[in-house]
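Fold this sequence, please.
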Amino acid sequence: MNQLILTILLIVAAAAAVTFSACDILEPEAQGQLVPLTVDEDPSLPSIEVNGTLLHAETFGNPTDPMLVILHGGPGGDYRSMLKLAAFADDGFFVVFYDQRGCGLSRRHGREMYDAQGPDLAVADLRAVIGHYRSSGQKVLLMGQSWGAMLASAYINDYPEDISGAILMEPGGLTWPDTKEYLERWQIIDPFDETLNDRVFVDQIITGSDHVKLDYKAAIQGAAEYAEGNKLGIAGPTPFWRMGGLYAIAASEYATEHSFDFTTNLQKYDKPVLFAYSELNQAYGRSHAELVSSAFPNVQLVEILGTGHSIPSFGWDNLYPIAKAYLNTVR
């Protein structure tokens, strides 16, 4: 009997040795394991070098057509979920996508750069992107989602003569008080809510402060926005490459400490603006859309049916004809 038991143990040990020796043990901090490589780490990615940084960027359409610059949300997101908007290239627009500094597959920077310049840095980058692609006399239009719509407004506030029109999709607010009020409506803490669980769970298993870990954590925590019962009306996950964890943290803390106001010059902007809000975002609604859009003197306010906050992803079929009609009036 003892000989039989010894034989079985030897067989099990041999099988285990074969099994584990066949597995590759991956090092999570090795490049490309936790998050995709950036343009600095993978030169095959499309990129442009502007304003002292390297941005992941793509264009669609004829470069001489009116330019439509797409601005993703966040701060800290990327443009992957907005690629449906490349369809406007077939409608006669030169469509420009870029991941903002420190986001998506664009170059990462240290915290001090964001702390010193705040949202002015994002505006300066946008101006450099436009300058990179723009030909003489070419019209430029902006189309932004959430934070991207706030950035578009900040740019128009600084350079109103530069922009021929804009589509703004649910900017949280154009001042910090309006934005803070909106955030508090959908970030209500419920200790038994799945949303809160998604935000804190990852901190129990991952620690660290380098870009790779911060971006990975931001990606996992982002699941809270589409968790069951979310107030934003987001039906599910949307595609993305890589979150900008440090940029998201720095932008949030800068707004809290310094506030902002992107409306100081907007009443002088008399060109038409298309302002879209979603049917299913419980924290937004027409009242908040009217409050935020009132900074512009010439606004077309529209409700996009059948979607929540992620309008380009889940409301594309209803958004597209409205956006196309508007763009053809300002091209």
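Confidence is low (pLDDT under 50) at residues 15-20. The chain has eleven helices and eight strands.
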